[in-house]
């Protein structure tokens, strides 16, 4: 069995990390996103459509040889009631 590399992308800015940064990672065929705590629900926006109360989601390229760039943005903010 081949180990699957795991990359953690944090929503919390670290000290001295005020500006947004760009990171390029090659060789990804599938991306799985979930919250650290199982009871935390996510809000996901895909092509302008917002989905609420999501536990996890995964993305996979249908034609991986044709996908050159796949931008992913992580946002955090307080939930208003």
From TrEMBL:
GO terms for molecular function: transmembrane transporter binding. Residues 6-76 form the Phosphofurin acidic cluster sorting protein 1/2 C-terminal domain. InterPro entries: PACS1/2_C (IPR019381). PANTHER family: PHOSPHOFURIN ACIDIC CLUSTER SORTING PROTEIN, PHOSPHOFURIN ACIDIC CLUSTER SORTING PROTEIN 1. This is Phosphofurin acidic cluster sorting protein 1. It holds the Pfam family Pacs-1. One of its GO terms (biological process) is protein localization to plasma membrane.
């Amino acid at each position: 069995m081949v180990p699957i590399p795991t990359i953690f992308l944090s929503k919390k800015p670290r000290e001295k990390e005020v500006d947004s940064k760009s990171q390029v990672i090659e060789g990804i065929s599938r991306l799985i996103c979930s919250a650290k705590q199982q009871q935390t629900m996510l809000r996901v926006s895909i092509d302008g459509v917002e989905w609420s109360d999501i536990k996890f989601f995964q993305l996979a390229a249908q034609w991986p040889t044709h996908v050159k760039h796949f931008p992913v943005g992580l946002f955090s903010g307080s939930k208003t009631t």
